[in-house]
Design goal:
- The chain has a single domain (about 35-319), classed as 3-Layer(aba) Sandwich (Rossmann fold).
- It contains 13 helices and eight strands.
- It has helices at about 1-25, 35-40, 85-90, 115-130, 140-150, 175-180, 190, 195-205, 215-225, 230-240, 270-280, 295-300, 300-310, and strands spanning about 45-50, 55-60, 65-70, 90-95, 135-140, 155-165, 255-260, 285-290.
- Helix 8 crosses helix 9.
- It is globular and about 80 Å long.
């Protein structure tokens, strides 16, 4: 009897090992060489400047005299703002960039991704482009970068727009699976090579309320830019090094601020929107029903219109 049980257990163990091997084989991905990913995701308007050892990818578009800087969130890129361009380009000079650790900019050679690093990086980037007075908008982690920059450089940021921004400590909130795995220090080294495309898609489905907007082109873009040389390691470095240690400083933001939020956000809870509105003295708040974490992509016309009104620009002439 014991011999039979051991035999059955042996078969089960073998099946589990085989199943694990299949999963690893199907989801093992080498990094995509920078030259290949650059060729595919560069735009006609793309520029590259070296800052702190990184080829920083950015674009400048639009016919307006006023500058606006747009900052993407975790796992994103400057492409996240594509759908806003038609509504902004007549009145603004639009500056978008890939933050360190993401997109074509890629990893920081020093593997540093804490709040101070991003603060110093943004100051270097703004100075290199000789920007003196501008508006700034950020989504998710990009909002975190934006409000920290505005906090430290009040003379430069005229108006601030936060779309589902991070900043406050998360208490009792369950993050989407992809973010939870990225924060797991034990799994991180494995995920630098074993990266299921299905996990990227699942994370995007959590970020968008309307699942029909998560098409294969969108998933491919996020997945392939994640596989850019060094970006997976950078992602895990950013997830482990960034924290909300300075959330109490939000009350010191002096720039007039528009807070835009989707009420179905599964990444940053809507309660944080109300906290931003309460803590920032000169703030306005727009809440969208049945919208998720990325309003500029889910409802580009409506979210752009609200922002333009906040910036005192009529939307009709931008269409």
């Amino acid at each position: 009897m014991l011999k039979r049980i051991l035999k059955i257990l042996g078969v089960i163990l073998l099946l589990l090992v085989v199943a694990l091997a299949v999963v690893v084989f199907m989801n093992y991905h080498e990094d995509i060489e920078y030259s290949h990913i650059k060729e595919k995701y560069s735009l006609e308007q793309s520029h590259f400047i070296e800052i702190k050892g990184m080829p920083v990818h950015y674009t400048i578009q639009g016919k307006g005299e006023k500058d606006i800087v747009l900052i993407h969130g975790t796992g994103g890129s400057l492409h996240d703002w594509n759908q806003w361009l038609p509504y902004l380009e007549n009145d603004f000079r639009i500056i978008r960039l890939d933050l360190p650790g993401f997109g074509l900019t890629g990893p920081n050679p020093k593997n540093r991704y804490d709040r101070i690093f991003y603060q110093v990086f943004m100051e270097s980037f703004i100075d290199r482009l000789n920007l003196n007075h501008f508006h700034m908008a950020g989504n998710s982690f990009g909002g975190f970068v934006a409000w920290n920059y505005a906090l430290e450089n009040p003379a430069k940021v005229d108006r601030l727009v936060l779309l589902n921004s991070s900043g406050y400590p998360r208490v009792g909130q369950k993050l989407p699976l992809g973010f939870r795995l990225a924060k797991n220090e034990t799994l991180a080294p494995w995920l630098e090579k074993i990266t299921p495309r299905s996990l990227v898609k699942k994370t995007l489905l959590a970020a968008y309320e309307d699942d029909t907007q998560v098409d294969e082109i969108l998933v491919d873009r996020f997945f392939e830019l994640l596989l850019r040389e060094g970006n997976r390691k950078a992602m895990f470095g950013k997830m482990s090094q960034i924290n909300s240690d300075n959330w109490s400083s939000i009350k010191k933001i002096r720039a007039p601020t528009l807070i835009i939020w989707g009420d179905k956000d599964e990444v940053v809870p809507v309660e944080h929107a109300y906290r931003f509105h309460k803590d920032i003295p000169k703030s306005e708040f727009v809440l969208y029903e049945n919208i998720g974490h990325m309003p500029m992509e889910e409802i580009p016309e409506r979210s752009a219109k609200d922002m333009l009104e906040f910036l005192d620009v009529g939307v009709a002439e931008n269409q």
